[in-house]
Batch of 2 targets.
Target 1
Amino acid sequence: MPRVCKGVVVAAIDVLRWLKQRWRGLLGGVMASSSAAQAATLPEDKAEAIFHVYDGGGVKATGPALLVRKSLADKVSLQAQYYVDAVSNASIDVVTTASPFKETRKAWDFSAETVVRDSTVALSLSRSTEPDYIAESVGLDTTHEVFGGMTTVSLGFTRSKDQVGKKDVVGFIDQALHWQWRSGVTQVLSPRWLVSLNAEAVSDSGYLGSPYRAARVFGAAVPERNPRTRSSRAIKLRSITDTQAWWAGSSLRAEYRYYWDNWDVRAHTTEVGGSKMLAERLLLDASLRFYSQGEALFYSDNASSETLYLSRNRQLSSFNSTSVAARLTYTWPGLPAGYDVKLTGSYEFKQFRFKDFTDLRTGQAYGHNAHVLQAYVSATF
Amino acid sequence: MQRLFSLALVALTMAGFLPGCAVQPWVKPYERERLAAPVMQFSRGALADKHREHIHNVREGARGATGVQGGGCGCN
């Protein structure tokens, strides 16, 4: 390790320590009177910074994101996130029916989490802005440990409101509301086996399409017409098993999600992966993901009759997607006890193959590949 | 499928009543050391999960039940 880098990290840790002591000094006296022992614990203090890249299908989205979580006198844990997506869009929709464009999406998230006996309760707020789209949400999540800590039950709710705009039109043209209800249970099955089951119901109302996207009827482009309500359900089962007995420092995980909604979209998502400690401080993760979905009732690549609802949104068409991913995590050595810094790099290759979406430039079924890169540093303190 | 979803919700709710059952926790806290190992974590980072979730949300018809907390999504 370069000596200069090590010096910078140690200096940064010293600053964090100093801030921690100052913070305790300021708030400790105020909060100490109610610092009773609790069974559930707040998330540990941490900071994350990431640079992310998605490049595929004519779309390139890059940007940084930051996250900071800090507890106040062990009573409330506050978290702030800032996320940027700088998008350069020349997707097949854009190049065949409009002009390539660039835009930036910025999102802020704030949350406050506290512990009540064996439960945690978190309130979160978020706001995402684009030149022609604003999404705001408020969420409430709670987790509860039962059965001697072997079972963790979670419940959550998010309500979102979107303001939909259109380029060259002043103000907003419409809005959409979303309600998300989620629940989950994580179960320790053995000292080396963990499973979780998650379920989520989402209801939407309002404008659920894109003002830029066109459908096709007898080969002619017409504005898409989506229903103004949508209701979906999803359940997901995950399992992770320690395979130390067969291969030192390794684990295997598998997950499956089934999704269905009242637009008649049905989807299966299967992911399998493994983790392996390559050295004391080097962790490798690898995974495979398979996704397939059927098309919505009102989807048509080129409709042969006029119908009330009509879409050529390929997100609602039938297609398959396959991904392979690898991630390497390095734990920085020589830090004081209680501090942990990890450097991570990951790459994912994705392949999309559409069964009923014609590339109007070639007349062939459309498909594309994509590359996803993440480089990030995370620190707990 | 509606029935399957309802059953899943009932199962998740019933999990909250496990302490009242006769079955005792069979994995003691001191036996859970391996579950805290780095290789045994579903997630490696909140921001990385959020990025991946966003990529899928704007390109696939399916959504939800990922374990990643929801929020506003500029998906226009």
Target 2
Amino acid sequence: MREYNKLIFECSKEGRKAYKLPESDIPSYELPASLARLEAAELPEVSEVDVIRHYANLSQKNYAVDLGIYPLGSCTMKYNPKINEEAARIPGFAQVHPLQPVETAQGALQLMSELEDMLCEITGMSAFSLQPSAGAQGEALGLMIIKAYHQSRGGSKRNKIIVPDSAHGTNPASAAMIGMDVVEVRSNKDGGVDVDALKEILNDEIAGLMLTNPSTLGLFEKNILEIADAVHDAGGLLYYDGANTNAIMGITRPGDMGFDVIHLNLHKTFSTPHGGGGPGSGPVGVAGHLEDFLPVPVITVKKNKYDLDYDRPLSVGKVKGFYGNFGVLVRAYAYILTMGAEGLKRVSEMSVLNANYMMDRLKEFYELPYDQTCMHEFVISHLKNNPADINTKQIAKRLLDFGVHPPTTYFPLIVHEAMMIEPTETESLESMEEFISAMIQIAKEAVENPEIIQTAPHNTSIKLLDEVSAARKPVVKWKGYKKDE
Amino acid sequence: MLPYLPATPEDENVILDQLGLKTADEVFHEIPQSIRLKKGLNLEGSKSELEVEGILKALSEQNLHAGNTPMFLGAGMYDHYIPSTVRYATGRSEFYTAYTPYQPEISQGTLQVIFEYQSMICAITGMDVSNASLYDGASAAAEAALLASSSTRRNQIIVSETVHPDTGRVLSTYMEQQGIELITVPMKDGITDLEVMNELVSKKTAAILIQTPNFLGYMEQVEELEKLIHQNKGLLILSVDPISLGLFKSPGEWGADIAIGDGQSLGNYMSFGGPALGFMACTKSLMRKMPGRIVGQTQDTDGRRGFVSTLQTREQHIRREKATSNICSNQALNALAASVYLTTMGKQGLQEVARQCYDKAHYAAETITKSDKYRLAYNQPFFKEFPVISSVSPENIQSTLLKNGIIGGYALERNYPMLKNCILYCVTEKRSKEEIDGLKQILEGMT
């Protein structure tokens, strides 16, 4: 295969076109000169063949779930079913305008309303908003709801949120986004929340606790009921980061654990594709006492007629235009229909079994800081036998040579040289073996031939990239059109 | 066996044996019994692909859509032509089943797409730096306001009443959370009231946020607004329709500091409101405070050109609560659609689409107001949308149009109580003369 290394701008030739519009059958109207653009935007001029070859070539420079195992911890890179993609493209979904009369969009509203009900059942919450575009926006919305709840009860000084030291970076960032102060609580030796430390920092300034359960270490928080009681007794609310819901469907529910607010990542647990970084969808679910604070509009149903209700005086407002990433919702809805109740439970069983299998196979070669039954993911640390001091980044780059995707690295922050591995339920025994054998091979190389790891990757079309100078002297757009710049 | 779950009973036994377990259920022993679900989830049973297809098709058939019904509705989402190249590229699973490009050596496809996307957003907006996309136009406005506030260290944002109502709502939601003062300036004759703006802008103002063309479709008087805010050392945030940039002055040419907007028009389906994308571009001096991902060019150890995520110390996974935003997932696949759209339409195509929208909208406005029943709400320059006032109620007009198989415009009274009996029509390049004449005929016959 030839190596493709062109920018689309370098394919451009004056006068080429990749489109044809119908001839306009309408006279031209004058544009006020003071409003007219002075210089046309320098977009490429290429043929349709150029467009297709360019993007086909670029696509081949990507690793993807459809090519092989992608065990990024906390990202739940499961298979993205094709029927879901087709469904989202049906014109009766893809080409519906969000503001067309509601009586002409009943199918879209029915789908959303039913999806809300399904998510309530799966999580044990009483109502959902499908509005947030992604997990982080869901977090921000969930925290706004907590803030509004306290304010409605005269508790406006409750402006601190507790976040474990193992939490995703979005947790503290979301808290800051809505003007809350972050208080960190440390983990205990088993990787759970240190309950005594938690109790020490609980007071009447605490709005609540954000918790991922299973945690980012892949461990179930055994003391969840005690934690929930302690937070509630202190007047706080409990927020569930649903990044790791894949482990618990049909097994246990955040609502039954005592959580007041949760968000889910449909692009993780519910099989919608990650798209190279989005679009996601981060619906927020609440317990009964928080329903009034949900964002507008809320979908209502009366006598089988669906409508949108904007008249919600206690609502926190709006975090996104219109109603949510509907195209993503269609995919998640199709997924839940396909799996059904038993199928979803089976998903959680196999994702947890797969993770434990890989952990058990790898712990002979890699440090396992928390040696207990894990949930859908686990965290390992550096090599057990490591005379050349090989680090996690080097292991990740060497894995590229084996044609598999590396795990999440250097996260969670509380584990030195962390590698976080999440196989998901859609990987077969054979594909897990492929990854395991690459990891074991690297463990051997670390002793016999460390240099091959230190200089990796070798088999990728591009070698190790210089990230330092990229940040020091940023080149963030094509400058070729104007040579003098 | 379910089609997405490859484990056979034998495979499962291999795993259980390795773990010394007898049943799958035992692997959940860390979960306290008191919170284990005692019965199955109350959902229906697993369905086949044919059944799922049938259910979704039936739901979709309850919706009218742009594919079977001519639409004169815009108001923030637009029925523009989407080239087949866009469906081809976004349908390639090497793009859509990849994660955020954390391992650049095996993500050069996604990274180069984002780099080219940033370049093209800079080209159309006339700005220095673009990020890799935000959720949508409304949340881009909120992010821009936060960026302006933190970079000027001022605590007041002034927004015009003429921005999209959802932009106003989202902005107000976010500003309230951070205790930033948000002042809304009313409109006069369909555009931002310059006199009121003049009275309100001060050295306390971090930025003014103006949408042009505004929600009513009219072009704002940006020149005066730009002078005013810059005299006060605040920032100009301009929200624009990217298609309009094929004809109208770019934010860069107007002197904006931050350009934002909703990118749906660039090759993304309306999809009942999402997913599409928000875009944001700014001047070089604001680059290191910009929210979201940015891709930069660099070299590998052999000296070959390559791309990486850069300036990451702004982001949540490094800076946690000190990050410039909490955004993690963005709208990468929609940014790909926007890139393929801009590549396919190219330098000439963007101008031609904008020109056709402009001409057709002006023809429609002229045709509809020939009858003395209808008149334009204000006399201002507009792009592809225009508000029409009549003595006929919007409900009556909408239902009559629906009966004739047309989706009409947006009733503005919902957001602007003083605009009674006023409908905002939108005409894109997809509408034909025949459809516009048909609309006019039905309107003409209304009483």
